[in-house]
Amino acid sequence: MTKTFIALAIAALAAALGPVAGAAQERAPPARASAASDLPAAVAGAIKASGLPSKSFGLYAQEVIGERTVFALNADRPYTMASTTKIVTSLAALDLLGPYYRWRTSAFALGTLANGKLVGDLLIVGGGNAQLTSADLAKWFKRMHDQGLREIEGDIVLDRYAFQLTAGDHNGTPMQSAGEPRHVWPDAMTLDEGQLDVIVQPARGPRAAISLKPALSEVRLDNRVSMGGACDAAPSWQNGRDGRATVIVQGSWGPACGTRTVSFVPPPDSGIAARALPAMWVATGGVLRGKVVAAQAVPGISPIPLGANGEPVAPLSFDRSKPLTELVRDINKFSDNVGARNLMLSLSPGFPARPATLAGAQRTIGLWLRDQGLADGDIEVENGSGLSHTERAKPRALVQLLRKAWRAEQAQAFFDSLPIAGVDGTMKGRLTGSRAAGQAYLKTGTLNDTRALAGYVHGMSGKMYAVALMVNSTDPAAGRPALDAMVAWLAKNG
């Protein structure tokens, strides 16, 4: 554990045992969980100032070490969690997979390799790495060339069946669309988190200069960006009937605009990874005689070739993701939905040897929550990201999970992943100038009817508190200042 975390834990334990606890209790008396009138005056005042009814708020704040509840309201009523759901996904993954778990994207030679030439196909198996980038792919292909594979006489066969999802598995989440990178669907071969970059720069002619990153095979650029006017370029994707596609970029671009990158999300059936592979293979110095084709999935049969002993052969090469601790940090600090959804699928039984299903991952999460001492219905997780309104929790249950996580083997990795108020992540611009700045470690949650905070608050007494603060309303933004005020009050008076 880091020195900071150990110091906080020692301070919390000392406060729990020493006379300071009595002073803190006088400043913040316990409250019952049923009525706004039982809340500390500052907390009740924050709710009143929001203009929202008290039933819109689900609140629970309790000592991490000790049993004292500082305040509670509607604590056993389920509330939509929004992205505070990622707390549950992260804790389950750290416990079940371990902090050093990595995802592999693997390559297998389906033929004879000699003198730098593969007579046959190259099978590439997507392993669910949510953060695989086109730069990573280029480095991996370059390593394969350096290790002796430069020419493929056959095809690149792309296997994306490590995640077996149906259209119905996305029903609880918003539709993937060009302007919403947060809504990208999970994929076993996610590349650049499902986004495509258009590089736009001024040119001397009537049109701006545009290019795609990464370069894609069988994709035509339709440049409709005129020179002059505002710095405005809007890309869109159009599938063709012949398997080819067109990226249409419309707008205007003045000389002063300089070079900029405009990102957008192509539709799920665009096949970005499959289109990037051949162009990337050639760009890194390789030769591909064939094309990229999709692997044909046979239920119950692995596409990975078997050796003479009937066991799967070792891959020719593989690319490993960052360790789980780094992915969890990105998921929580910056609310990475793609990472969270891929992570939850990775909890499906038997993954990656067995393809992941959403139902399997949901069962794993449900059983894990029971193991944490929670009852069915205390916390409901649908896809792990918080995008679904079916992902709900009782504030008391979420705090119970956070209190147990404080003592868990992977407590440090989880604690380090939480945004710090006034310092970084999605909490960087919040609670600045208050006692909570640098002292509140909170995952944020935002949906069109939800605002939420969950995590830990370090009180002035030295005690650490676990909190779950949720607003469900048609006007949730009105509740956000109230949540911040509660955190600031707890940091000062706890």
Strand content: 15-25%
- Average pLDDT rating: 90
Q: Helix proportion of residues, in percent?
A: 25-40%
**Gyration radius over CA:** 26 Å
Q: What is the subunit arrangement here?
A: single chain
**Spatial shape:** globular
Low-confidence segments, ≥5 residues, pLDDT <50?
A: 1-34
Main sheet properties: 7 strands, mixed
Structure description:
- The chain is an alpha+beta fold and 494 residues long.
- It is 28% helix and 24% strand.
- Strand 8 (196-201) and strand 9 (209-213) form a beta hairpin.
- Residues 1-34 have low confidence and may be disordered.
Describe the structure concisely.
This protein has helices spanning 3-17, 20-27, 41-50, 85-97, 134-146, 272-283, 324-334, 337-345, 358-371, 395-406, 411-417, 480-493, and strands at residues 57-63, 69-73, 79-80, 104-114, 117-125, 151-152, 156-159, 196-201, 209-213, 219-227, 232-239, 245-253, 260-264, 287-288, 292-294, 317-320, 379-380, 392-393, 440-447, 450-458, 464-472.
Which terms summarize this structure?
globular; 21 strands; 5-stranded antiparallel beta sheet
Task: Describe how the helices and strands are arranged.
Blueprint: H1 3-17, H2 20-27, H3 41-50, E1 57-63, E2 69-73, E3 79-80, H4 85-97, E4 104-114, E5 117-125, H5 134-146, E6 151-152, E7 156-159, E8 196-201, E9 209-213, E10 219-227, E11 232-239, E12 245-253, E13 260-264, H6 272-283, E14 287-288, E15 292-294, E16 317-320, H7 324-334, H8 337-345, H9 358-371, E17 379-380, E18 392-393, H10 395-406, H11 411-417, E19 440-447, E20 450-458, E21 464-472, H12 480-493
Parallel strand pairs: 5-6, 5-7, 6-14, 7-15, 10-12
Antiparallel strand pairs: 1-2, 1-21, 3-18, 4-5, 4-16, 8-9, 8-13, 11-12, 17-18, 19-20, 20-21
Helix pairs in contact: 3-12, 4-7, 5-6, 7-8, 7-11
